[in-house]
Write a structure and sequence with these properties.
DUF3243; Cytochrome Bc1 Complex, Chain D, domain 2; DUF3243 domain-containing protein
């Protein structure tokens, strides 16, 4: 089962990666930039596996660059307390 198949698994996965990055000293600006790059990649290259991902993809695709950064930052906030290491 892929982490993309279930939104809770996806949030746990993202939370774990966020905690890892922070533990290695990555600052908030770098996290934000990487989150934006990942969001762009997912929106263009990965098929949505659940309703939540489909909504995020649609929002991403209608957003301008500033709004995409905001979506990425909100996803970072959403997963800050997620993950198996939280």
């Amino acid at each position: 089962m892929s982490v993309l198949d279930n939104f809770e698994s996806w949030k746990d996965f993202l939370g774990d990666r966020l905690h890892q990055a922070e533990g290695q000293g990555m600052n908030q600006k770098a996290v934000s930039e990487i989150a934006t790059e990942i969001g762009g990649y997912l929106a263009t290259e990965v098929e949505a596996k659940n309703d939540q991902e489909a909504v995020l993809r649609e929002l991403w695709n209608v957003a301008d660059t500033e709004e995409q950064h905001a979506i990425a930052n909100m996803m970072v906030k959403l997963v800050q307390n997620e993950g198996t290491q939280s």
